[in-house]
Each structure stands twice: as structure tokens, then as C-alpha cells.
Amino acid sequence: MDSQKYIKGYIERAKKAQAEFEKMSQEEVDRAVQTIGRVVFENAQYLAEIAVEETGMGNAEDKYAKNRQKAGIVWNNLRGKKSRGILETDPNTGITTVAKPMGVVAAITPCTNPIVTPMSNAMFALKCGNAIIITPHHKSVRCSTKVVEMMNEALKSEGYPENLIQILGEHSRENTRNLISSADVVVATGGGGMVKAAYSSGRPALGVGAGNVQCIIDEAYDYKEAIPKIVKGRSYDYGIICSAEQSVICPEADFENILKEFEANDGYVVRDAGDLDKLRSALFEDGKVNGHSVGQSCQKIAELAGLEIPADTKVIVAVAEGTGLTDSLGGEKMAPVISAYAYKDLEDGIRIAAENLEKDGKGHSVSFHSDCEENIAKVGESLCVSRFVINQCSANSAGGSYFNGLNPTNTLGCGSWGHNSISENLNYHHLMNVSRIARFMPNNHVPSEEELWG
Known about the structure:
The chain is an alpha/beta fold. Helices cover 40% and strands 19% of the residues.
């Protein structure tokens, strides 16, 4: 197969569809975006089941909840927001901003979120009048293709142009490489290799970094309030969410009681040196994540490690022997296993988090459980991540929720710390070109030399 010719066909179809679509009104564009979200919301159970069946990762119950939640919060965030034509005129500057499409978006999507990432990328792209071509992970081709087919059927029934959303039918690195070098803008959500390729494509690119969310419990905070949220986050979809808690960093005085509280919330604590080695071997192989552990239940992880745990265990708590600089347990774990650390004071807790982030996840997210605004500010100023979630389950909130102001997304930028171009949650405005009309402002004040330099 001639890859360049093959991809050229996708680009030409996308450009034709986009040229028709960009002539449509804001109301028509928004109805298309709503239609995409509704497809996933109304078919959440089916799409969850086929995703688990194909990828073998996560669990259908959590994916069902994720499909419905993400479809709802993304649409809720997008509805009513202007993204076509004149946006506003600033009377102070005289600048009028005009929204225009970027054109054809190429989106690389992961097997860990094979339904909601194509959905949200398509919603963001169409919101701005673009067309989108998706290249999914090879482990999730069937389920990602199915959701795109369902979206297209719904759009066709409402009279929208064909090929606004396409997905590659033939999958290879060469095809992906040719796609991302031919589109107008690239969105890459997935492994570091794919993200790096996107930034090397010669096209504007929006990629994301690895997660390794550090969760700190403040000294004066009621840990009984925090632990259920942390367990929920770490166990969610069997630990494959990039925004899920990876390490819990606790005040030394409460450490033993916190471990007991984990046990009271269906956690299993591992602290024996030999058992910790077994756990490391189950989670990592040659310094990298062991593929057999990704998105598996605690019971499967215990089986891989040769450990016996209660049947109802939701999260394995590993009392780490060092930070990520010396202990692999301080890095990102794609399973419902959380590392536990004790800190002497908050400064020490921040140090532990920073060292773990140096291993993995710098620029991504930190979860902090605290009622002290001074300490919240201190943590926020000290750690190099793009988002801090306060007193929330990070897995369900760092990517935006009804209960915080972060943009709902499945693509979380990590800034220059994570070698990304954005340090915020990907949103529709990242896929929008903006023209600026600058008016002559004859009455503007021109400062004197004394004002400038005196």
C-alpha cells in the first residue's frame, strides 16, 4: 500500500467536509457537537463493554460511568460558548477577535481511553468548525472505530457533511507519521513516543505528558475524609487513568493510623521487603511498566506478584522504601497500586512529591487534602505541575468536573516540565485560529520619557 496516497485520500475527504461545515452557523455547529456527546452518553454501557473486551484493560462499570460523565461535562462546558465568527470587541483596546477553524485535526488516541478521548477530541474539533482524522492505538482499533461509526451515523441522520470525523482503517507507524505531517494541527494523547512524534511532525502539535499524581494529606486535615476519595481515585478503572492518585504522602504522626484507614476502606497494605520486591516485579519489567499489569484488578496484580490478598481488595498500598529516584514504586503505576510515604513536616512532604515527579509525571497534577489556605498556596508555589486538585478525588477531577473550574477534557497538558506546548487541559480554543481587528485609537495616552524612565 502506498501510505502517502492512502493518507492523501483521508486529508482530501476531510478538507471537502470541513469546507462545507465551516459555512454553518454557530447553532448548527453546536448541534453537531451535542450529537457526538449524546452518542457516547446514550450508548455508554455498550461502548464500555466493547472497550474492555478488546483492550483487556480496566472494568466496564467504571468505563460506563466515565462515558456518561465525560460526555455530559464536556458538552456542558462547550454549550453556549461562541466559537464561530466575531467573538467580542474589547472597548479598552479596540480589538475585535474573530474565530476561524484550523482546518483538519489529526488526533492520536490511546488504548487506555479508547472511547472518551476520540469523543472529546471530536467535540473540540467540530466546535471550532474543523474536521478530524483519528488514529487510534493498535490495541483499541475496533472499539474506537465503532464509536466513530456511531457518531457519523448520528451526524449523517441530521444532514451534516460526510467525513467530518474519520478514523484510519489501516494502522501502521508509517500511516500515522504521514497523517500527522499532513494535517493542519495534531493532538497526541498517549505514550511518550507518539507525543514526541507529534512534536516532530512539522505541524503545530498539542501533546501531553505522563501522569504520576502525588497526593499529599496535610497535617491538620481529617484523613478519614481523604482516604475514601484516594481509594476511589486509585482504583478507578483499575488504575489506568493518568490523573489518578499514584502516591499518598502522609504526616508521620498519623502514618500508622492512615494505613489502618486504608485497610478499613478495602485496601491491602504491603510493607515486607520481600513482598515489595515481588510487587515491583509484577508492576515493572526492565525499568518499564509491565504490560501484563496495565489496567488489571488487584487480584490479578497479586497473582502476578505471588501474593495472597482478600477478594474484596480495591487498592494495594505499598509502603515504599524510597522516592522515585531510588525506588520504582515512586513512579507511575498503571494498576490499582498506591505508594505510601511518611513526612516529617510539609516541607519534607513537598520534597517527597518533587522527587517522585522527577521520576515520572513532572508537570501533570498534584492532589492536596487541606483546609489551610496558607499551605495550599505553599504547595501550589513549590511543585512544578499544571494543576492542583484540592480535597477531591483526583482521577475524577483533574480532567475537569462539575465541581471545579478546570476545563473538562481527556487530554491534560503538562507544560514545558512535561515537554508539552500547553500547561492546561486541552479545550476547544486550542483548536481555533483567532484573527484580531486592530482599530486606530487616537486618544490613547502616550507616556512621556519621564514617565517611562524617570
